[in-house]
Specification:
The chain has 396 residues and is α+β, with helices and mostly antiparallel strands. 35% of the residues lie in helices and 21% in strands. Helix 1 runs antiparallel to helix 5 and helix 8 packs across helix 9. The radius of gyration is 21 Å and the shape is globular.
Length: 396
């Protein structure tokens, strides 16, 4: 059902409009930030925050997808609860109302009675978006709706979103921090197998007009279902994306990497990655960046060979969308520690790809959906194998 992917792209663009609108007025924005409760928090952070943009975007995606595909809204899961507490201590359940006026009235309660801001956000929520994407329009794939479920991360890298660094410079195309690291992630997986089917990554903050200071963004999509592998980064939407091995041969930069050895491979990791991991990766070009979604996007775009995380501080909503896109390109996203175990046991044929339909046994709160073994996101199987060989002395 390619109409679902088209609807996801539209939802991501509307979500990006909301993210930009919330951020435009900094004084107002600071009213819209609150610290998450213990059961919602990512244990990696001393303080973990959510914003009204997070909550509202998640509800907009549920509303719009459910309206277009009735019943699907019951299978849309996300990072955020839809409760928000205003400055008066009132708990408000954020949702999209039937009318624009109703949504504005509800949002005004969160916004301490600021009806102007509430009406602005409500107008975006209830306004359609127009997208010209010929490749997406030509896409044809029949996927039964009753096999699909969604993971949503409405604002990935919320810390960067709150801080709002706007003048960061790239290193070989990779931002270490800043608004460019903020992403909206919408991934679809098969309810039975747990495998990713399609994904959309939206980057709301890519370029900033020097005069108006307004931001514009971009999006990426991919679909991988049975024998169909299509993504927004390929030229011919009617042709399946090349297999990983062919992709390595076709890209001149990747070809040089394979010929010249580990020095020309690259990885992006978190700054707080362990010294053991940093030491093992010292023979490759190493980049540091914020945001799991953004680091995955660096792999999608080919800025790095892999994104690697050794800890269990990412979740299903962080990975489903980029995993689907990477899969459509011949790559994927695997459990890092399970890879190490299989390699030590000599079982290197079948990769432990992440799946999205099974909670962690015995875990509670957000940890039920953690990627317990860490992860490696990759575009090329040969690059993955070469990187994993660097960890031969690391215990699983």
């Amino acid at each position: 059902m390619s109409e679902v992917l088209t609807a996801l792209v539209h939802a991501s663009e509307k979500s990006a409009n909301i993210a930009r609108a919330c951020k435009q007025e900094e004084a107002l924005f600071q009213l819209l930030v609150q610290e998450k409760k213990s059961i919602e928090k990512n244990k990696r952070f001393v303080c973990d925050f959510k914003t009204l943009a997070d909550v509202l975007i998640q509800e907009v995606i549920k509303h719009d997808m459910g309206k277009k595909f009735p019943g699907l809204e019951d299978h849309i899961f996300g990072e955020e609860s839809n409760e928000f507490t205003n400055s008066l201590g009132e708990k408000i359940k954020v949702e999209v109302c039937t009318t624009e006026e109703g949504t504005a009235e509800l949002l005004s309660k969160v916004l301490n009675g600021n009806m102007t801001a509430a009406e602005l956000l409500a107008s975006i929520v209830h306004c359609g978006v127009s997208i010209e994407d010929p490749d997406l329009e030509k896409l044809a794939a029949e996927i039964p709706q009753d096999t699909m479920a969604l993971w949503v991360d409405p604002i990935d890298s919320t810390f960067q979103y709150i801080k709002g660094y706007a003048n960061e410079k790239t290193k070989d195309g990779v931002y270490s921090k800043g608004l460019q690291c903020v992403t909206i992630l919408i991934g679809v997986y098969d309810r039975s197998s747990g495998l990713p089917i399609m994904g959309v990554i939206n980057q709301p903050f890519v370029t900033r007009d020097p005069h108006s200071l307004r931001w514009s963004g971009r999006y990426f999509w991919g679909l991988s279902y049975n024998d169909i592998n299509i993504c927004s980064l390929q030229n011919d939407v009617n042709a399946a994306f090349p297999a990983a091995e062919d992709l390595c041969e076709e890209s001149s930069r990747q070809k040089e990497e394979m010929q010249d050895g580990d020095n020309n491979l690259s990885a992006v990791i978190s700054t707080n990655e362990s010294d053991t991991i940093k030491s093992a990766l010292s023979v490759v070009r190493l980049y540091y960046a914020a945001g799991a979604g953004y680091k995955s996007l660096c792999a999608v775009q080919g800025f790095v060979s892999v994104y690697l995380l050794s800890e269990d501080t990412t979740f299903k909503w962080d990975c489903c969308a980029p995993h689907a896109i990477l899969k459509s390109m011949g790559g994927g996203m695997v459990d890092f520690r399970e890879c190490l175990k299989r390699k030590s046991n000599g079982n290197v044929d079948e990769l432990p790809e992440l799946i999205y339909n099974t909670p962690v046994n015995g875990a509670t709160g957000v940890d039920r959906w953690a990627n317990k073994g860490g992860l490696v996101a990759y575009r090329c199987r040969k690059h993955l194998d070469t990187i994993m060989n660097l960890f031969s002395d690391v215990n699983p």
